[in-house]
Here is the input.
Amino acid sequence: MKEHPNELRSTRLSENLLRGRTSLAAVAIILSLSTIYLIAKAVGSSGLDFRLIWLAGVVWSEGASPYGEAYGLQYIAEWGPGPITHFWVYPPWWWPISNLSALTEFSTATLSWAITGAGISLVSCLIIVLNLGQDRHYAFLAGGTATALVCVSQPLIWGISIGQTSFLLLGGIALLIHAEVRGSTFARISGLVLLMLKPSVGVFFLLFYLMIPEGRRSVTGALAALVVMTLPSLLFLGFSDVWGMAEALQRYGAPEMIFNSFANSTGLVQLASLLGVEASGALRTGIKMVAAGAALGLGLIATRRRDPVGCLAALCCLLMILLPLHSYDAVLIVPAVMYAVFRLRPGIPFLIAALLLVRPLNIAGWTGLVNPSSKVFIDSALIFFASALLSAMFLVMLQRKWSLAERTL
Here is the structure.
């Protein structure tokens, strides 16, 4: 006896619903487990790099400048000789954050910083998914999977476990995406302020928005906020912190800083190291000038194409392959990957390149794809090549999207 057509349709609908619910449940479980993993890593944070932030707050609260020699002596007295950066290099607008962290003991402050980093990372992924995802079912499946992979990714885990500031990049860009989708000037200003806490990257986003008429007001607002954050330093210490930061930046770029060497950095300097090009400050400066030009150019394109989010994602890609960054800064490319997943629907090669950036340290160790001269960040070469491959495919897909949009007008 044949089933009635209505019964067949009902059966198929039930099966599809069951598959849909099963896949949603699976993603929910995976996302929950990855979140637990991230929080566990945050709780176990050593705070190695966070020491610098906390100690700067202690020194500032005592009325002294963290850019002076006393800072290094106090570091050694507190923890003994450790990493060779026994000096403060972040800008004076860190004054409120460092002082706030120094209100508690180091262990408590470290835990708070790590949990904050994990929380901002999770919320940032959620913000990006909510703003880019158009189909709710697909948004949960794709966004949940992508967020889970971010939670277990070595760049994020490493950054949080040592108390780094790289999660601020993810938070800042997420706010910028929200600002462009929802038209929020406040979110744009907040995003730029977060990014300028890591000015070696944030300054390029300021340049990007300088080329967008409605973005200039946000740049002004962000700079005003940074001035306000710097006021306590200026009031108590005058301009000594400003000159001190300039000297610290020179020391930070010195050849003896092995972790900043070409071999231990991502970006074009990694390629230069592999090709045997001698490390030089002129090359670093030239690369940063190219990155500045790219930021300005993308700002102009964003205005002409009316796709600021796509251009922001493209800027993330270009900065990742141009600038000399560290392994934990690879979170910078997360917004571009999510944009591609939701707006470009990439193919398998793109997804493979993205997956390489989830566990680059493991893959570099298994495959031997390392720079022989790299002694600290041995996954830098793999991160550079994976980022370059991913970025090239992203830019091609983005251009195709724009071309298709022009043809349909």
Notes: Residues 1-18 have pLDDT under 50 and may be disordered. The chain has 19 helices and no strands. The two ends are 53 Å apart (CA to CA). The chain has two domains: 1-252, 257-409.
